[in-house]
């Protein structure tokens, strides 16, 4: 008895539907790291995730781009304020020891 071979499945690029891409980008916007999203969803690299984000922002128009710029600005300010807070905590610890 001879066995039939299944035809080979072409090994091309994986295709992701629009909903999958939108959900992945939303996870990124919600604060998850790109590396954790890539690992969780089985993507090849973070590059594809950032490309999807860029494409979605381009489709959304100038309002979304300005919001993305504002988010980046606020994240930078948050990092600066956290550094200032950490310095003040250390200063407080130093001054409270000298009493």
Top keywords for this entry?
99 residues; mainly alpha; 4 helices
Order of helices and strands: HHHH
Biggest sheet architecture: none
Number-wise, the strands total 0
Shape: elongated
* SS strand fraction: under 5%
Query: Low-confidence segments, ≥5 residues, pLDDT <50?
Result: none
Helix content: over 70%
Count of domains: 2
**What's the total helix number?**
4
Distance between the termini: 93 Å
Round the Cα radius of gyration to an integer and report it. 23 Å
Estimate the mean pLDDT confidence: 85
Question: Can you describe what's shown?
Answer:
Residues 64-91 form a coiled coil. The protein is mostly helical and 99 residues long. The protein has two domains: 16-60; 61-99. Helices cover 72% and strands 0% of the residues. It has helices at 18-29, 34-41, 46-60, 62-97. Helix 1 crosses helix 3. The protein is elongated.
How would you summarize the topology of this molecule?
Elements: H1 18-29, H2 34-41, H3 46-60, H4 62-97
In a few lines, what is going on in this structure?
By secondary structure, this protein is an all-alpha fold. Helix content is 72%, strand content 0%.
